[in-house]
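WARN  no MSA supplied for this record, continuing single-sequence
INFO  ligand: LDGCRDGN
INFO  echoing inputs
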Amino acid sequence: MGQEEEQAEGGRCVTGRLAPSRQVSSGQLGHTGTGCSMADPAQTQELVYLVTGGCGFLGEHVVQMLLRREPRLRELRVFDLHLSPWLEKLDAGPVRVTAIQGDVTQAHEVEAAVAGAHVVIHMAGLVDVFGRASSETIHMVNVEGTRNVIEACVRWGTRFLVYTSSMEVVGPNTKGHPFYRGNEDTPYEAVHAHPYPCSKALAERLVLEANGREVRGGLPLVTCALRPTGIYGEGHQIMRDFYRQGLRLGSRLFRVVPASVEHGRVYVGNVAWMHVLAAQELERREGLMGGQVYFCYDSSPYKSYEDFNMEFLGPCGVRLVGTRPVVPSWLLVLLAALNALLQWLLRPLLLYAPLLNPYTLAMAKTTFTVSTTKAQQHFGYEPLFSWEESRRRTIRWVQATEG
Ligand SMILES: NC(=O)C1=CN([C@@H]2O[C@H](COP(=O)(O)OP(=O)(O)OC[C@H]3O[C@@H](n4cnc5c(N)ncnc54)[C@H](O)[C@@H]3O)[C@@H](O)[C@H]2O)C=CC1
Ligand SMILES: CC(C)CCC[C@@H](C)[C@H]1CC[C@H]2[C@@H]3[C@H](O)CC4=CC(=O)CC[C@]4(C)[C@H]3CC[C@]12C
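INFO  complex generated
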């Protein structure tokens, strides 16, 4: 049993105060209009955190992690376009959990949520590499939504902003150049052709450029961006899709990408932990951390996308057929192009958004691994969950999804 789990099971089961679907206004929160600083001793036990996108895959883990690992928390605001039912069952202890149904593209909704918050963790976004949303929508949510969050921080005196960026801000690029054990300073030709990485890169830049801006009350805004690689763990929708596909194909999946291509993946619990730690440390180390980017990493092994998935799907009874790709590379490229064409042709009638398209194929075929200690050196980050624990938890979740 992991350290985290012991805590969870041994903890008191007290239901937190929850105001479902409540749109908070600045007046209700008793905002003072002064810059919110964690340095004020009178406020150290009284922090208000806002997590945008708090009902998503990563957001749920961040919410749980904050409740367990931020003893100074007074109020946790969970802002999302779609509120999840698990919010009602949160073990929040004495913390007030405020669920806010809202849209980051609506500046007034963001402002109302930010007013009076000491720390914002901004992870709301459209994670779409399959062509489900238009590039305009992706830009509106990921870039303009981030701009709204920054402006709201400035307006209301919120000093600390942690942004969930992505490794995609760096690559893989469209030329398929490998990024092998790279760190935050490794030179790489970042070429963004797809709306999702474009939007993450633009939003990240906005966040970093906002570092040092004067917020209401006269103090500077302190920002940093975390760049997770591909996240896995409990709640990972694509893993679930692969599992279901495997079951449909008679408990088999067919290898399509060479095993030699390596991906660096990171466990969702560790990503959540890095967010909480970064948020906590931003004030004490603002000179060092302000305006910085950090890859989000842990001790998960480097493997091809498919071999990595088999670490979890294998114990659930699915096997990967073929030591080499069962489909020739040229055919896969053709199929991906065909999918893109079909998506375009069918768009007026229906949404056709399969996993395979030219972009996802390029991603799956390109080695992208991160090896860095920057977060460890700057704010003492160490993964909270070992690889064995991360694997065990993910397997248990995959097994439960079909149970
Ligand atoms: N899943 C992954 O492998 C990676 C994700 N990321 C980033 O992490 C963040 C969270 O991603 P996931 O949890 O995987 O995605 P997700 O789709 O599960 O969560 C995103 C959340 O944002 C909310 N949201 C979307 N549009 C919104 C809007 N207009 N207003 C308010 N809320 C809105 C969604 O309802 C959802 O709950 C994103 O910013 C993503 O770019 C970064 C690297 C890897
Ligand atoms: C059938 C194909 C050949 C295999 C398809 C695999 C793809 C669906 C996934 C391969 C790599 C993934 C992406 C990668 O992990 C990095 C990401 C970072 C993000 O910020 C968002 C998610 C993603 C783009 C992730 C999406 C699925 C893959 C493309």
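The chain is about 40% helix and 15% strand.
INFO  checksum written, moving to next record
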